[in-house]
Structures
1.
Amino acid sequence: MQSRSPIRKCVGCGARRDKIELLRVVNNKGDILVDPGGRTPGRGAYLCPNLDCLDQAIEKGALKKALRKEISDEIYTKISEEIKHG
Ligand SMILES: [Zn+2]
C-alpha cells in the first residue's frame, strides 16, 4: 500500500517516516520556527516528535547543518516545548 504523504528523514535518529508523523522546523528568513502545518516557506528539517531525536540532532550538529543556523538555547527550548505540548 502506498503512503499518501511523502517520506522524510528525521535529522536526529535518521529514521524515515511519513512527513505527517514528523515535526517540521524551518528557517524562515533567519527565524527558526516550529511548523506543525508544514506550510511555512524556508529551509526545513524534520524531527520525530520526541526529545531524544531533538537532542541527537543538536549533538550531531545535524539540525544546525540542515537549517544553516546556530541552534541557540532559546530555539532549543522553543522546539522542545512544541514537542512536549504539541
Ligand atoms: Zn528521530
Note: The longest strand covers residues 23-28.
2.
Amino acid sequence: MYDVAIIGGGPAGISAALTALHRNKSCVIISSAPEDSMLFKAELIDNYPGLPAITGADMLRSFIAHAKASGAEFLDGRATSVMPYGTSFGVAVGNDFVEAKALVLGIGASRAKGFPGEKEFIGYGVSYCATCDGMLYRNKKVAVVALSSDAEEEAEFLRSIGCEVEYFDSKRAKKFEITGESRVEHIVADGVSYPVSAVFIFRPSIAPDTLIPDLGLDGSKIVVDADMATNIPGVFAAGDCIGAPYQISKACGDGNVAGISASRYVEALAKPAEV
Ligand SMILES: Cc1cc2nc3c(=O)[nH]c(=O)nc-3n(C[C@H](O)[C@H](O)[C@H](O)COP(=O)(O)OP(=O)(O)OC[C@H]3O[C@@H](n4cnc5c(N)ncnc54)[C@H](O)[C@@H]3O)c2cc1C
C-alpha cells in the first residue's frame, strides 16, 4: 500500500508528489497520457520563474523526470473509480488496482460534463474501461465515444475481442445522448439514434463526482479548504480542478500544500488514538 496516491500527472500532481516524497512518503502518480495535460498543449510558457521561454511539453517532461528521479512511481492510465475503505482508498485504473492511505486529486479542470443519460447508466452499459468491461459485450454492438488520445487503442481492443464498434470521434459527432429502459439501448449522436448494448466513453478525465461519489463540488470545481482538504477525510485536491486562476505556478503551489496535508494525514493515521 502506498502512503499517497496522486491522480493526475500535471503540475499540481507532480508538485504534490515531490512534496510528499520529501516527507518520506511513498507515492504513486496515476495519470492519463502527458499529452492530455493542459500544460502539454501550451506552446510557450514565459511566466514560470527560472524557466523562461519553454514549451509546455518540455516543461512537463522535465517535471516528470524530476518526479521519477525523486522516487515517484508512475502508473499510466485513467483512474475510473475510488473506493473508500475506512483508513485507506482503493483506486481502479483499468485492470490495475492501487491502494493508498491518502489521495491527492490533481485532475485538471473538469471538462467532462457528462452526456444526458451517462450517469444513470454507469454500470448498466456505460463504461470508461474497455479491458475491464469489454468481454461483457463480446459479439455485440457497442459505441466508442473518442475524446482522448487512447480511444483508438481501446476501440481496437474491443474489436479484437469480437465487439462490433460504432466509433465516434469529434469529427463524426459532437452531441450525444444515451437512452434505454433499465440499461443502455441506444446512443443518439447529433440527433441520429444507433442501437448499441454499451457505450464506452474515453475522455482524458472523469467527472470528479463520478470518480468519487459524494465529493463536494461547486459546479464543476472541487471544494477545498486552505489545506486543500476536500469534504472527504484523506482526500485532497489541487490545481485547475479546484478553480481559477488556471496557471502553472498556482497549480504547483496548491500541489505543495496538498502534498504537505496528505503527508500530515498519513502521519496522524500512524499515531495511536488519544483517549
Ligand atoms: C494552450 C494553453 C496555454 C497555457 N499557457 C499557460 C502559460 O503560459 N502559463 C501558465 O501559467 N499557465 C498556462 N496554461 C494553464 C496551465 O497549463 C494549467 O493551469 C496547468 O497545466 C494546470 O495544472 P494541473 O496539474 O492542475 O492540471 P493539468 O495540467 O490539466 O493535468 C491534469 C492531468 O491529470 C490527468 N487526469 C485527469 N483525470 C484523470 C484520471 N481520472 N485518471 C488519470 N489521470 C487523469 C489529465 O489527463 C492530465 O494529464 C495554459 C493552458 C493551455 C491549455
Note: The mean pLDDT is 93.
3.
Amino acid sequence: MPKIPHDITDSLVQLGRPEKVQGRHVNLPIELGSTIIFDTLAGFEAARDARYTTGTLYYGRYGNQAGFQLEAMLSELEGADGVTLTSSGVAAISTTLIAFCVPGAHLLVADHVYGNTRAFCDNVLTRLGVEIEYFDPMIGVGLSDRMRETTCAVMFEAPGSGTFEVPDIPAIAKVARDGGVPSIIDSTWATPVFCRPLALGVDVVVASMSKYLSGHSDCMMGMVASTAEYVEPIRKTVMAIGDKTGAQEVFLTLRGLRTLKMRMHHFDQAGREMARWLSGQPQVKSVLHPAFDSCPGHVFWKRDFTGAAGLFGVLFHPSSDDQIRAFVDSLQHFGIGASWGGYESLVLPVKPQRTATAWDIQCQLVRFNIGLEDLGRLKADLAAALPLLNTASE
Ligand SMILES: Cc1ncc(COP(=O)(O)O)c(C=O)c1O
C-alpha cells in the first residue's frame, strides 16, 4: 500500500483558531463553564437533541467552543470523520473498548499493548463477562484464524509499548473489517505527523495527548478519532460515563499542537542519532527502534510511517537488576518518570508483560525518551554511566 502523502503544516497553524483574527487574540481563551443558558425552551431542547454532535453547545460536560475547535483540528490531522476528547489516554482506551464490548463478547488484544490497556482488559472487561484473547502482534493476516462469531473488536499498537515491534497495520485492519468488527489502534507514538492509521484501513485511532500532541508534560488528555460509523457510539459512551476534558488542558493542547511537526522532526533525528550511538556501545545487545532493521517489523515501519518518534528501547547484555538501577540512578540528564513525549529526556527500565508470546528475559530492556537537550551532553552522560553495566564478554 503506498504511503499517503499529506502535509499538515498549514493545518497545524490555521485550524482551531477564531476564523477572523482582526481585533481578537490569536488563540481562543480558556473557556470555563458548566451551565449554558438559552433564550427559549425550544432552543434548549434543540441543543439537547443534538448534544452528541460535536459543535453543539448544550452543557459543559458535552464540550465547549475551544474543545470543538480541537476536535475539528484533530479530525483533519487524522483524516477522521469525527473525534471525541477524553480526560486522558487511558480514558480514550477504556471508553472505546467499553463502547464495543458486551457480556459474552470476545476481544482480540495484541500482546504488546500498553500496561494499562492490559490492566483494563484483565481487571475490568473480564469482570463484565468479556473474553480477552491476546495475540502475537506480528501475526499479520494470520489473525483471521483467531476471529470468532463473538469477536467484537481488535485492539493493537504500532509500535508496541516498550518493545517497539511494528505490526502489519493494513493486514490487521483488513482482517477486522472482513470480520465486520472495528480495529482500534493506539497511535500515541507516531502522531499524525508520522502515521495516519485511518488511511491504512484502521477504524478507530486512540491516543494519549498527554505525550507528543500537547508536548510539554503539563497536561493530561486523550482523543478517539474514527470513521463515521463509530463516531456516535464512542461519543455516547464517553458522555454516558461522564468523562470530561478540562478547559485548561484543551488550551494547552491547542497551543502544543502548533509546534507538533517541528518537534516530531527534531525527535526523529535526535532519537535516531542516540539509538545509533547506543548501538555501538559494548554493553548494548541491540536497539529496539522502528527505524533500525534490528527492530521486528522494521519493513512495515518503512512502508507505513514517514518518520520515527524519539522513544525507543535498548536491550543491554545481561546485567543484574542492581547494576541497571545504578546505571539509571547515575544519569544526570535523563529524568526517571512515567510518560514521555515532552521536551525532556527520560529513562525507565521496562519489564514487558507477555502472555501470548515469549520475551527474552535474559537481557535488560531500558526505554529512552529523547528530548530537546544537546545530544553531546546526553551522550557524555550515558558514556559515564555505561561502564556500570556488563559487556557481552562479562
Ligand atoms: C502507548 C500509550 N498509550 C496510552 C497511554 C496513557 O495515556 P495517559 O497517561 O494520557 O492516560 C500511555 C501512557 O504512558 C502510553 O504509553
Note: The chain has a mean pLDDT of 95.
4.
Amino acid sequence: MKIYEIRVRRALTPSGLPEYHYALNPYVGCLHGCLYCYAQDYTRGPPGAAWGQILYVKANLLEVLRREAAQLKPGVVGLSTVTDPYQPPEAKYRLARGSIEILAEAGFHISVQTKSPLVLRDLDLLRRYRESVDVGITITAMGDKALELEPAAPHPTARARAAARLAEEGVKVWIYLGPVVPGYNDSRQDIAEVVKLAASIGAELIYDRYRPKPRAHARLPPAYRQEAGRQWWTQVKKTIEELCREAGARCLDVEEEWRARRDLPQKPG
Ligand code: SF4
C-alpha cells in the first residue's frame, strides 16, 4: 500500500449528483478497496489502476477550502462523493474533520457517507453542528459475508454500532444499502437484516442497484457477475419496499430520488 501527498488548487467542485450542490473529496483512491466500487472505473492514474493499494492525500485541502468557503454561496456538500472520507489515513490527516468544521461554520450543509466507525472520532463536531450535517453509513450485507467484496473495509457490525451511536447522539443518520449486487446481497434474508438495523435506530434506508462498470465488474467473483436487468431489479425493489413497510422503516430508491430532483434547481440559492 502506498500513500502520496499531493497539492490541489480546488477543494469544492460542482456535484454531478442531484442531491448535492458541491462535491468534496479529500482523498483520491480508497484503501477500503471494495471489489464492486465504481470509483475505480472513474479514477485516473495509479489510484484507479491499483484500486485499494494507492492513495493520494490532498495535503493542502483545508487551506484551499477555507478560502473557497468564504467566497462561495453555501449549499449542500457531499463528503465524499467518490471515495470514503474516513478511510484509515483520515486518523492522521484529519481532512474530513477539518472540512466539516470549516463548512459548517460557513453555513454549508455537509452530507457524509462512509463505511467507517472512525466517523465517531468526530462525534463532538457532528453533535455541535447537528443541524448542518447528516451521516450515511453504507452496509451492503451484515455479517462476514461483506468481507468477500469489501475486504479492507471495517466489519459491518462495527458500522452498525457506529450508526446506532450516531442516532443515539441525535445526529441525523441514514443507512445506504448499495449497491445491491445479484447473488451477493439480493436475498430476502440479506436485505431483511439491513432493513431491521435501519428500523431499529430510526434511520432512513437509501438503496440502489448495481450497475456494471468494466474494471469493477471484472474484479467481482464469477458467481456475482450475473445479469442485473430490469426484471431482477423490479423484484428486488419490491422485496426491499415490502420489508421496509413490515419493519416500519422509511426507505428510498436513490434512482427515484434522482428522477424526482431532476427538475429542481441544482445550484445553491
Ligand atoms: S468504501 Fe466506498 S469508495 Fe471506498 S472502495 Fe468501498 S465503495 Fe469504493
Note: The chain is about 35% helix and 20% strand.
